[in-house]
């Protein structure tokens, strides 16, 4: 536990130093505040931008930051030094994951300021689940990649699919049909309803399946490559 | 402290270490010398449990290296050039991360930085350090938790003389504290000055081992005397009665400027044993 906290603390200290990742964390929450407060179009659904950006946030920030943090630490060989100092790989991964999750939850809290308070109690737990799945997906990429360059180029297409497809699905039915298999699209549908009772079994199954796929992929990659 | 018995290691077809055996007693500075690609880093990786090996036995602190526990590894201090720093963190922050990991009091960080002469650079970002400062920070980090056994892979390679001297002093001090130090280098001058004991590694074998001064004496077979004359010309004589007469004659004539005995250095010994130079420059 102490080692997990050390990793968490180390990442926390890096928050304001690592600008590229900080932008990831801050961009959508800020964008949400701006759009919700400045743009008012008639007939626009309630909290349209909050719901739209929430899903994009899930598909981008935790994914890219998890991949980038792990890949950088591998590339710079600082991870190896940590392992030498008896930090176990799982302690490192949990510490890093917990950090990303915490920062993203702060971002989500900022995004939710425009929502009515009962909707906020729905929004935040759903976001929390989305972040966890994305962090696992990002960790897969981080473990798979030898260096940051490789991580960036693998993250790109995955991020595009997870965060942009649900947005594009609004405009195109064919995309919408294909998009249903992704957890981000399901989360998008769930946010449209904003109620626990409206969540369909199909959504739950798809989200769980997504989580399972990434968890298995993570286990396989981790077995094969570890954190080397 | 370290026992290596017939250790072999190949990367594919390429045999890097071939039945290497040696032991290192407690409290000495041992230097592993060899040209680039000899397998020095490979051997350190094996001794520190970072790399598996094909055959043989390695024990460190009387324990099989593959069975070392966390508490045993806490007694290791390792510095390798590829071990990175947190570039965006300052020197002090870099050490703070590891002070936390080891559960060491934060007040030790200042002391540790001072011990490597980086007290003024505590707030400098690692990315902005010079090469010599970087090496000293890496060393400070390796020594932060007061290890008993210290592995240094080319601690001074590519550094300016002042940084080298500083690092040598730190290593000597650690020895005085009773630490065992295992270092690699391809600088024979460093090995001669710093090490109690050197091992020459070539093509996967340890071809010679001993105290630097003993080795130099051992290979001092054809004891040569070098002279330079007042007119600038020079000559070389073997140490025998014949040469004694000639040199005496030169002195009598008053034409002799300097006279030196020419002993082998680790460099020439290595060259003699392997036909290879230690440093390619
Ligand atoms: N992971 C690896 N895979 C394949 N070959 C390797 C690997 N590591 C080292 N080698 C090879 O083993 C040999 C010894 O390498 P090593 O790094 O131990 O040499 P070294 O003595 O440390 O050299 P230098 O003085 O340049 O650091 C080299 O020929 C190198 O190419
Ligand atoms: Mg080397």
Description:
The complex is a heterodimer of chains A (228) and B (281). With 228 residues, chain A is an all-alpha fold. Chain A has 10 helices and no strands. The longest helix of chain A has 28 residues. Chain B has 281 residues and is of the alpha/beta class. Chain B has 2 domains: 215 residues, 3-Layer(aba) Sandwich (Rossmann fold); 40 residues. In chain B, the strands form 3 sheets. Chain B has a 6-stranded mixed beta sheet with strand order 6-7-8-3-9-10, with helices on both faces. A 4-stranded antiparallel beta sheet of chain B has the order 2-1-4-5, covered by helices on one side. In chain B, helix 3 packs across helix 4. Chain B is globular, with a radius of gyration of 23 Å.
How are the elements arranged and paired?
The complex is a heterodimer of chains A (228) and B (281).
Chain A: H1 2-14, H2 19-38, H3 48-75, H4 78-84, H5 89-111, H6 117-144, H7 148-168, H8 173-179, H9 183-193, H10 201-225
Helix pairs in contact in A: 1-5, 2-3, 2-5, 3-5, 3-6, 3-7, 3-9, 5-6, 6-7, 6-9, 6-10, 7-9, 9-10
Chain B: E1 2-11, E2 14-24, E3 29-33, H1 40-47, E4 55-60, E5 63-64, H2 70-73, E6 76-79, H3 91-102, H4 107-115, H5 131-143, E7 149-153, H6 161-176, E8 180-185, H7 188-194, E9 197-202, E10 205-210, H8 212-218, E11 224-229, E12 234-238, H9 241-253, E13 256-262, H10 266-274
Parallel strand pairs in B: 3-8, 3-9, 6-7, 7-8
Antiparallel strand pairs in B: 1-2, 1-4, 4-5, 9-10, 11-12, 11-13
The complex binds adenosine-5'-triphosphate and magnesium ion.
């Amino acid at each position: 536990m102490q080692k997990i906290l050390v990793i968490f603390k180390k990442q926390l200290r890096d928050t304001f130093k690592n600008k590229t990742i900080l932008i990831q964390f801050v961009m959508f929450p800020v964008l949400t505040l701006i759009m919700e407060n400045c743009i008012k179009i008639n007939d626009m659904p309630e909290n349209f931008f909050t719901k739209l950006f929430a899903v994009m946030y899930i598909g981008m920030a935790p994914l890219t930051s998890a991949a980038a943090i792990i890949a950088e630490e591998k590339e710079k060989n600082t991870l190896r030094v940590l392992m030498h100092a008896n930090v176990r790989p799982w302690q490192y991964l949990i510490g890093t994951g917990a950090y990303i999750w915490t920062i993203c939850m702060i971002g989500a809290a900022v995004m939710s300021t425009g929502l009515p308070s009962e909707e906020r109690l729905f929004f935040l737990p759903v976001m929390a689940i989305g972040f966890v799945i994305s962090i696992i997906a990002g960790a897969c990429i981080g473990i798979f990649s030898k260096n940051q360059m490789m991580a960036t180029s693998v993250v790109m297409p995955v991020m595009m699919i997870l965060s942009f497809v649900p947005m594009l699905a609004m405009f195109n039915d064919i995309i919408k049909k294909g998009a249903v298999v992704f957890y981000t699209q399901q989360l998008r549908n769930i946010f449209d309803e904003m109620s626990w009772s409206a969540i369909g079994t199909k959504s739950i199954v798809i989200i769980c399946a997504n989580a399972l796929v990434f968890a298995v992929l993570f286990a396989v990659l981790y077995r094969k490559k570890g954190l080397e | 402290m370290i026992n290596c018995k017939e250790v072999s290691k190949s990367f594919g077809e390429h045999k890097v270490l071939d039945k290497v055996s040696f032991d290192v007693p407690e409290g000495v500075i041992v230097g592993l010398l060899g040209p680039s690609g000899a397998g020095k880093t490979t051997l350190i990786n094996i001794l520190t449990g970072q790399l598996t090996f094909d055959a043989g036995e390695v024990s460190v602190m009387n324990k099989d290296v593959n069975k070392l526990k966390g508490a045993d590894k806490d007694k290791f201090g390792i510095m390798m050039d590829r071990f990175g720093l947190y570039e965006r963190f300052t020197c002090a922050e870099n050490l703070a991360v590891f002070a936390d990991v080891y559960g060491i009091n934060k007040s030790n960080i200042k002391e540790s930085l001072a011990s490597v002469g980086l007290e003024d650079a505590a707030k400098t970002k690692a990315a902005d350090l010079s090469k010599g400062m970087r090496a000293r920070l890496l060393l400070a980090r390796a020594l932060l938790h007061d290890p008993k056994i210290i592995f240094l892979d080319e601690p001074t390679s590519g550094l300016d003389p002042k940084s080298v001297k500083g690092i040598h002093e730190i290593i000597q001090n650690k020895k005085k504290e009773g630490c065992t130090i295992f270092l690699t280098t391809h600088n024979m001058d460093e090995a001669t000055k710093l090490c109690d004991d050197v091992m020459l590694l070539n093509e996967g074998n340890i071809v010679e081992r001993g105290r630097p001064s003993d080795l130099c004496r051992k290979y001092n077979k054809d004891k040569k005397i070098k002279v330079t004359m007042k007119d600038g010309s020079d000559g070389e004589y073997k140490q025998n009665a014949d040469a004694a007469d000639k040199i005496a004659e030169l002195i009598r004539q008053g034409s002799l400027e300097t006279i030196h005995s020419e002993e082998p250095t680790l460099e020439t010994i290595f060259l003699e044993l392997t036909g290879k130079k230690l440093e390619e420059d």
